[in-house]
């Protein structure tokens, strides 16, 4: 395990696969246990499901993982061993999106990718219950070739989330609340990990289409050559291609039609945030690429139009959901800046660097 200097966030860094199966659990046991308590309470209060029922449902993914994704199965086993937390509880964390069945609001966010003449920028705000802020960690995986080095921000105990790899592939996530789950397809958070284990955007797209995604979500996938949106439901995976200006944006509702799948629009402000981020990106495009850098993209995430349900979301008396972190990636240069807290009220900053392997 390694710790980033000048950070209060737990940083789990491992130099081989065997260590990855244990050290995440050993290093972040406290955060994992707090996260389990949070989700146990959330499922009970909003979906009327006991944690035993949650774990029983999560176990339906076991045949798929053992058969088609044994490395993720073994990593979760090692995580269980290192943390001394039951395997099924950790599996439930990693398939929490699927277990919700659209019964409660999931995490929200606003995401964008922007291709320039020299790189691709990928960015998002991640909005969720304030209680989970203390359980966010930085996970660094220096995997054996041909798999790339991975750096991500994740909820402790979840092995795939938001970040980038040494091949310049980056991923962001937009939750979408729609009923339906397919236990023969890859769960959303493991689909994110699958992307981060890929050597290119094209390779990741091919992998997701082959595996399918078990429930509704949007994965914004990019590399130095540009971005693509992967709008997923339990029945299909549809692509959202770059605009003529090299842009892809998304929030928390379906943009394309998914026959037989109903988007319940969990966050009513999602269409307004999508319109707003498109307006802001249009402004950047009109200014031209001269002087356009990571800071200009980062500034978009500070926007408070339609406050508190803005791109930079704020907690209110009626909702504890707020922006818990923002991330802005330069995929050509293989680094990302993570700002914890609302982008307008940053509490801590960390740089992820995926350009070099641990020696």
Structural features, described:
With 359 residues, this protein is α+β, with helices and mostly antiparallel strands. Helices cover 32% and strands 25% of the residues. The strands form two sheets. An eight-stranded mixed beta sheet has the order 1-4-5-6-7-8-9-10. It has a six-stranded antiparallel beta sheet with strand order 11-2-3-12-13-14, covered by helices on one side. Helix 1 packs parallel to helix 5 (70-83). The chain starts with 10 loop residues before the first strand and ends in a 6-residue tail after the last strand. The relative contact order is 0.15. The model is unreliable at 1-6 (pLDDT under 50).
Class derived from helix and strand content: alpha+beta
Q: What string gives the helices and strands in order?
A: EHHHHHHHEEEEEEHHEEEEHHEEE
* Helical coverage, percent range: 25-40%
Integer average pLDDT: 91
Major sheet: arrangement of strands: 1-4-5-6-7-8-9-10
Strand count, sense and closure of the main sheet? Answer: 8 strands, mixed
Q: How many helical elements? A: 11
Low-pLDDT runs of 5+ residues are: 1-6
Distance between the termini: 14 Å
Strand content bin: 25-35%
Rg over CA atoms, rounded to whole Å, is: 19 Å
Number of strands: 14
What is the general shape?
globular
């Amino acid at each position: 395990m390694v710790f980033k200097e000048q950070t209060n966030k737990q940083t789990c860094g491992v130099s081989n696969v065997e260590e990855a199966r244990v050290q995440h659990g050993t290093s972040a046991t406290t955060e994992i246990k707090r996260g389990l308590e949070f989700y146990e309470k959330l499922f009970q209060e909003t979906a009327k499901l006991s944690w035993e029922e949650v774990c029983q449902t999560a176990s339906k993914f076991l045949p798929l993982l053992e058969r088609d994704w044994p490395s993720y199965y073994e990593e979760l086993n090692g995580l269980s061993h290192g943390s001394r937390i039951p395997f099924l509880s950790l599996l439930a964390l990693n398939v929490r999106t699927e277990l919700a069945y659209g019964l409660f609001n999931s995490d929200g966010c606003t995401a964008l990718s922007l291709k320039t003449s020299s790189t691709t920028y990928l960015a998002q705000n991640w909005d969720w219950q304030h209680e989970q802020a203390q359980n966010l960690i930085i996970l660094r995986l220096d995997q054996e070739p041909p798999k790339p080095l991975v750096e991500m921000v994740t909820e402790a105990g979840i092995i795939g989330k938001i970040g980038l790899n040494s091949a310049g592939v980056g991923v962001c996530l937009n939750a979408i609340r729609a009923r339906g789950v397919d236990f023969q397809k890859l769960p959303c958070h493991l689909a994110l990990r699958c992307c981060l284990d890929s050597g290119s955007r094209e390779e990741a797209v091919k992998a997701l289409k082959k595996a399918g995604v078990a429930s509704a979500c949007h994965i914004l996938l990019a590399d130095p050559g540009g971005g693509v949106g992967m709008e997923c439901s339990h029945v299909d995976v549809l692509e959202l291609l770059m605009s003529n200006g090299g842009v892809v944006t998304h929030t928390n509702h379906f943009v394309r039609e998914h026959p037989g799948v109903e988007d319940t629009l969990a966050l009513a402000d999602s269409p307004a945030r999508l319109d707003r981020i498109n307006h802001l990106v249009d402004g950047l495009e009109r200014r031209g690429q001269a002087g356009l850098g990571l800071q200009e993209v980062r500034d978009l995430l500070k926007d408070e139009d339609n406050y508190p349900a803005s791109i930079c979301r704020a907690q209110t008396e009626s909702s504890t959901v707020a922006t818990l972190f923002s991330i802005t990636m330069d995929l050509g240069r293989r680094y990302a800046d993570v700002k914890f807290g609302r982008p307008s009220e940053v509490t801590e900053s960390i740089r992820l660097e995926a350009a070099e392997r641990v020696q």
